[in-house]
Design brief:
heterodimer, A: 207 residues, alpha+beta, 2 domains, two-stranded parallel sheet, 4 strands, globular, B: 123 residues, four-stranded mixed beta sheet, three-stranded antiparallel beta sheet, 33% strand
């Protein structure tokens, strides 16, 4: 749990900031209250972070140093084993790496950070624009008008699951049920990976 | 015809009613028309002479534009160039977001500390 890591490493100079990409603060509230965080636990109802950091799925983790520089770009890390069976990701490696970085024993990322920083292209920004328009309409009870823009966004950025999965609930689809598994099944079945971690802390490939 | 224009670069998602044939870039988007082009802070973007329509503004700023005339709404997204340049600089883009209590936090207030930024969702 990030709360436990924050508590353990705060005196050594680490702050964990968690951000829920959710439709409303109320969607995130049960998760936040259960975690009882003492670190900033923020809510991003406009998916601003996805746009600023080119995040295409959750969880996405970024490590930032004292000077505000990204030292470990967008990565997939799970620090609890709740979903290990399903995802294949285990917490041991990321937690050990985090401790080593905070204690100054190892760099956050041994590779070239800039080379691993995925930059957005015009197509994904157009997708985010459709998504932003749809989100705005849906928030005003105009779901029918929003729908074609959700569809367009997903078609333009089929690899962006903050868009494709993140909009399921508001479109009347189940983001943790058959609709979701069908979507992931089709994506993985066509030769793609659902999670795109940096290689150094990633679990061995399953396929 | 007028459209409600949503500025997706604005974290508060402010919207303005504009005439797409000659949108008021100053009040709608915070850019000023000057002889050297569209200007904001110390940045100017050259634009062609004559009346600028909404699509022309979007092109000049290299920002994606989605217009839904039937819904009467348009959205101007963030440019891939600007987002890419910010990420390429190596500095983590700053943001201001609120917690459940409504308190606003920024990333930059944690300068001097290491930060793990963890994005997740309830879905």
């Amino acid at each position: 749990m990030w709360q436990a890591l924050n508590e353990e490493l705060a005196a050594d100079g680490l702050t964990v900031i968690t951000v829920a990409l959710d439709k409303t603060p109320e969607d995130a509230r049960p998760f936040i209250e259960a975690a009882a965080p003492t670190h900033p636990s923020l809510i991003d109802t406009e998916y601003l972070l996805a746009d600023l950091y080119n995040m295409v799925n959750v969880p996405t983790v970024v490590w930032i140093d004292e000077a505000g520089a990204i030292v470990r770009p967008n990565d997939v890390q799970f620090v609890a084993d709740t979903y290990s069976q399903m995802t294949g990701f285990t917490p041991d490696k990321p937690i050990a790496a985090l401790r080593a970085w905070v204690h100054g024993e190892a760099p956050a990322f041994a590779g070239d950070v800039a080379a691993h920083q995925k930059l957005p292209d015009d197509t994904v920004q157009l997708a985010r624009t459709h998504f932003g328009l749809a989100w705005w309409l849906a928030a005003r009870g105009r779901g029918q008008e929003a729908e074609p823009h959700f569809v367009a966004a997903g078609e333009l950025a089929p690899d962006d699951f903050t868009i494709r999965r993140g909009s399921m609930l508001i479109r009347g689809l189940d983001p943790a049920g058959p609709d979701f598994f069908a979507m992931v099944g089709a994506w993985v079945g066509s030769g793609h990976d659902y999670y795109l971690p940096l290689a150094d802390l990633a679990p061995p490939p399953r396929r | 015809m007028t459209l409600t224009l949503i500025d997706l670069e604005d974290p508060d998602r402010r919207s303005t009613v504009v005439d797409p044939a000659s949108p008021d870039v100053e009040s709608a988007l915070g850019w000023t028309r000057r002889p050297e082009g569209l200007c904001r802070h110390d940045v100017c973007v050259p634009v062609p002479d004559g009346v600028l329509d909404l699509a022309g503004v979007a092109r000049a700023l290299r920002r994606p534009l989605v217009v839904d005339e039937a819904a009467g709404v348009a959205a101007l997204g963030a440019s891939a160039l600007a987002r890419g340049e910010a990420l390429s600089s190596g500095l983590a883009p700053d943001f201001a977001l609120r917690d459940l209590a409504g308190r606003e936090w920024t990333l930059s207030q944690f300068r001097g500390r290491k930060v793990v930024l963890y994005a997740y969702a309830s879905w």
